[in-house]
Amino acid sequence: MRGIDRSDLEATLWQNPHAHIGDAGPRDNKNAVIHTDAEAFPWQGTARAVHVLRLFSVALGAVTVALAPAIARATAPGHPAVAPLAMALTAFNPMFVFISGAVNNDNLNIALTTLALFLSLRLLRDGLRARWVVALSVALALASLSKISGLAFYPLAALVLLIAAARGAKGEVKPVRALAFSLLALVGVWLAVAGWWYWRNIALYGEPLGLETMVAIAGPRDPVPSYLDLLAEFEGFRRSYWGVFGWFNVLAGAPFYIFTDLLATLAAVGLAWWGAQRARARRWDALLPPALLAAQVAVVALGVLSWTRQTPASQGRLMFPRGHGHRRAARAGPVGAAARALEAGRRDRRRAAAAGVRSRQPVCVHRAGLRAPAHRRRRARRRAPGCGQLGACRAAGLPGPHTDRSPRRGAAGHAVLARARAG
Predict the structure, then answer these.
(1) What digits encode the pLDDT tens for the residues 98-147?
(2) How is residue 388 annotated by DSSP?
(3) Which residues contact residue 160 at a Cβ distance below 8 angstroms, ignoring those fewer than 6 apart?
(4) Does pLDDT of 395 surpass 60?
């Protein structure tokens, strides 16, 4: 932004003194600022800077959407139809689209923590590889620099490294040594990339996180509510995860929230059913990636609750950096089941088509007790790779061949090449 002249900021930023901030009841004065012709295209000055930042936010949202199917493939291997479903649940969340078009530090934090989650899943799958460890360390350091909620992923990252080390490091490095290197990389990269910012907070505000200063600016709660008191704000929190626009004063229609509540409920039931199935089958490895997502959601939810007790901040968008747990639940529910059913249908059709192709390949047929000369057997193998006896073809479920028993070059009883036709 240094190259853009923003000297017209005070003249352009015209606050609306009658705006109903946080109140969706009145039908007028929804805008917090008054928009003028100074914002018209081609943008100049402050208007250009704001639009450049909004385009940057859109690009960060695109990064998040692009990473969603990769995370889906890591948490639901063997179900390729789940990946586009994850992308759709991310890209078509109205609140996510709204925030991705605004100037907001949440967008960078969401993209970086999503990247960190993807890298963590790769570490769980591939073990402690240096490139994934360094990439995770950089992503988390930048996330903690974009917003202090990025720090919440560090305990989970350390747990991921511990599990990956327990599974064994790749290469010749011993697991204990690889774990020590990984933890040092996690801390060292944070000190190099983000440590200066937290030291600056100590110098300016006397605290590394600056929370007391932020609470003083936003306005503290008085009295401080209990966790039970915050249940009264859950409706606004729940709705704002899916779509409360403007300055928390523009609502969607009531049917939209009924639909999202139904979707979330069915997703929770589906996730519980999916987890019970895996636990009953003792497929603990399959439960590990969703457990990481669930732990991520839980840690951030506790942080949001703690922050909301200090200042009014019951906004569902604060869960977006960890929204992949919710989307994993939706994929495990009926929507995911429908996607998997469609995928199974496509897979069956592909198998049927492949069987049809195989059934038209040359089949090697031998008369009982007789063998063809060696050169005829080699020729048959070249023309019909992978084909066995007639009984093997029938055992594989392929239609029986129409065999031509007429003698050809050579004595009767030689191997005859027949073409099996479907039907």
Answers:
(1) 999 999 999 999 999 999 999 999 999 888 899 999 999 999 999 999 99
(2) -
(3) 120, 123, 124, 292
(4) no
Tell me the percentage of the chain whose pLDDT exceeds 70.
74
C-alpha span between 196 and 56 (Å, rounded): 25
Cβ distance 270 to 332 under 8 Å? Answer: yes
CB 144 within 8 A of CB 150: yes
Q: Decide: 164 and 113 in contact? Cβ < 8 Å.
A: no
Pair type for strands 416-419 and 362-365: antiparallel
Q: What is the DSSP letter of 320?
A: G
- Residues near 384 by Cβ (< 8 Å), separated by ≥ 6? 361, 362, 363, 364, 417
To the question of pTM greater than 0.70 for the whole model, the response is: yes
Report d(CA 260, CA 258) in Å as an integer: 6
Distances (CA, A) of 378 to 298, 373, 384: 64, 9, 10
CB atoms within 10 A of CB 84: 13
What pLDDT digit, counting tens, does each position of 225-244 carry?
888 888 888 888 899 999 99
DSSP 152: G
